[in-house]
């Protein structure tokens, strides 16, 4: 993972004193953000599909459920059956293809990674209820068999869906507030939303898929962490019609840098990283993404990788998943 943290932030992020200060208050649960999947539609062994876990208090909230999100959740030690709610930014398949897995694997009985007996609470834009109903219908044989064979509750194999249609607070529970705001993912890709999560005086904003969005900048003001999407193509591909269409739905590094400069988060993070290559043409890679961003933005920045965690307290601490110990360090 590449990351750059300027000035005092570097000291705060890696200094043991910052960690021990957090550990000195074990009764507090800081706002914690874990990048589960940071990828694009490209089937990538390193970057799974888009998904972000936000933990606030005792709540575990999943934002988008892209390919492999169930695997990353369980790697992060979170049972699929334990999610308090799932929130969808929009219904592009790279953001929802892991949803049936979370619903149905999370429903299997008596297993530590599952055992949900209640409906999966789901929030999403218009079309979410229809999609959820069709997922349940598509897997009706699995559901019928497991109810008959394993005695599972029917409730656990369905969604409890709330659709939202305008900007505003869509979830408020035990001090956790989730606000949805429309973003700009292209003229035909509506609705598309981003989210702001506030808890305990701290906040994280998730851009969803978007071009440079003034509405996002408005809603992101004062946020501790801004997780933003980005897309970049190899120079040789930039002007190909199909590539131009893709790039026109996303934020260039220059556009994202502009957003970061105006929001000034304590930490800017890239996720949903679209790096476009072609047979014989290498995708730009993180070095090029760094250089293109750094040409316009000098503040704290992390290029996200799967299972990077941000603990948001008085400072933002960056942790990485250590496979050997199965812990974030
Ligand atoms: Zn999209
Ligand atoms: Zn996407």
Structure description:
This protein is an alpha/beta fold and 329 residues long. 28% of the residues lie in helices and 29% in strands. The protein contains eleven helices and 17 strands. The chain has helices at 7-14, 16-23, 69-75, 93-96, 99-105, 128-138, 140-150, 214-220, 241-247, 253-263, 285-294, and strands spanning 3-4, 31-37, 51-56, 59-63, 85-87, 120-125, 159-164, 168-173, 176-182, 193-199, 202-206, 225-233, 267-276, 301-303, 308-312, 316-322, 327-328. The strands form two sheets. The protein has a nine-stranded mixed β-sheet, with helices on both faces. An eight-stranded mixed β-sheet has the order 1-14-13-12-11-10-9-8. The model is unreliable at 1-27 (pLDDT under 50). Bound molecules: zinc ion (2 copies). One zinc ion binds next to helix 4. The site of one zinc ion has 6 residues, from helix 4.
Summed up:
The protein has 329 residues and is an alpha/beta fold. The chain has helices spanning 7-14, 16-23, 69-75, 93-96, 99-105, 128-138, 140-150, 214-220, 241-247, 253-263, 285-294, and strands spanning 3-4, 31-37, 51-56, 59-63, 85-87, 120-125, 159-164, 168-173, 176-182, 193-199, 202-206, 225-233, 267-276, 301-303, 308-312, 316-322, 327-328.
Count the E strands: 17
* Major sheet: arrangement of strands: 7-6-5-4-3-2-15-16-17
Strand pairing plus helix content: what structural class? Answer: alpha/beta
How many separate helices? 11
Relative strand content = 25-35%
Rounded mean pLDDT is: 92
